[in-house]
Amino acid sequence: MADSLNKIFNFNKGQRRAIVILSMLIFVLIIYRFWQANTPKEIINNDRAINEINDFIKSQDSVKQQFNNTLKESKLEKNIVINLKPFNPNMMTKKSWLELGLNEYQANSIQKYVSAGGQFFKKEDLKKMYCLSANDYNRLEPYILLDLTIKPESKVKKNSTTKYLQIELNAATTESLLDVSGIGEYFAKNIIKYRDMLGGFYSVEQLREVYGVDSAKYEKIYRNFNVDIGNITKIDLNKSNFNTLKKHPYIGKKIAFEISNYLKYKGKFKSVEDLKNSISIKDADYKKIYHYFVVY
To answer: Fewest C-beta atoms under 10 Å: which of 132, 213, 233, 245?
Structure first.
């Protein structure tokens, strides 16, 4: 019996090789059938997938067209018709700017500037608006009319009875500054901020140093103010330190360093006037900073 089985299963080298190859083919066939049975038909069917992609693209074109139609309808609903005509930029409304072809962002930006006390005194002033492109300005420039604009200087000449507010700058609040024609929230905050940095104003002329106040703005507002130097917050020169001094707009790091070194190595100042002989300081700088020091 054992001999009979041995004869049946006793294969030579060639036969064994054939059995191995056949087994591998059967294994591969089983794996392929298993993969085919579990693969989604959508992946196998390439034609169907391509058709679905084409349908999606067409649907997007339809959505895009629908969006464009909605946008056109929206513009029509607003009844805004572009109408280029002569205009005074100081007397415009948001709708007026839109009718000149500007978008809402541009119209809002210009209106915000004017509401804050800004004015256009010459055509080129409009060109400075960051929201306008060069093309926008070139398109509008021929229609800008500023001959009707009443400038501060001409206003004084035509109306000699003009009454100005008398606001003490060092005691002014944001609210009181807003009462001045030509000052909006932006300029009011800038004035208060600069005053706090200085410790107070010793002259109305210092308003020229406030960020955003140009010559035209200064000429329009300065008559409304006066200054009480008694309201200036002064620094005790002998108790000052480098970190405090360097933040003052008129002092800076160089002068602050020299004052600190003098106090450290040579002792106290006897008077504010000692600054002129004790540290290297220009006359112009001394005339500014001596208002802000005191020696006790």
So the answer is: 233
